[in-house]
Amino acid sequence: MLRLEHISARYGAIRALERISLQVPSGQIVCLLGANGAGKTTTLNCISGIVPPEAGQILFDGEDIAGWRPDRIVARGIVQVPEGREIFPDLNIADNLLLGTWTRRRSPDIAADLERVLDYFPVLRQRTKQAAGTLSGGEQQMLMIGPRLDGETEIAAAGRTRASACPRS
Q1: Has residue 46 got a pLDDT over 50?
Q2: pTM for the full model?
Q3: Which residues pair with 81 in a beta bridge?
Q4: Please, what is the Cα angle at 82 between 79 and 83, to 5 degrees?
């Protein structure tokens, strides 16, 4: 379970979050809704360790992870799906997916996890040797989301995902 308790954060003199609290029970999907500038991305960035909270606690399975480095948070099973299409366009799809497993490079389960991702997104399986930059926008979203669906991810924080990333059956 993930729980934020009274998180506050700022960018210099600008306060971005003021005492935000929320709870995400295990196995649940939670959506943060709000206007531009409401603090949705800052909340995700605090959870991911990109923005250190000024005050409050971020509890993951009872352990306070507020202030941890992002790589340590990723190793703990919390990942962020970047906004936009942050892929390596000149690399092929298979290499992009493998780069998404970088923090787990010694794990024996990588091949099985990548197979699972390709099962979720069969259009990527059909074109693993194709340059990622030639994919459509929705296919690039699939490529971004894919590595976060591995067997070790417990929380995937996504900002502004697109419906175009949904595969058709």
Answers
A1: yes
A2: 0.73
A3: 158
A4: 145
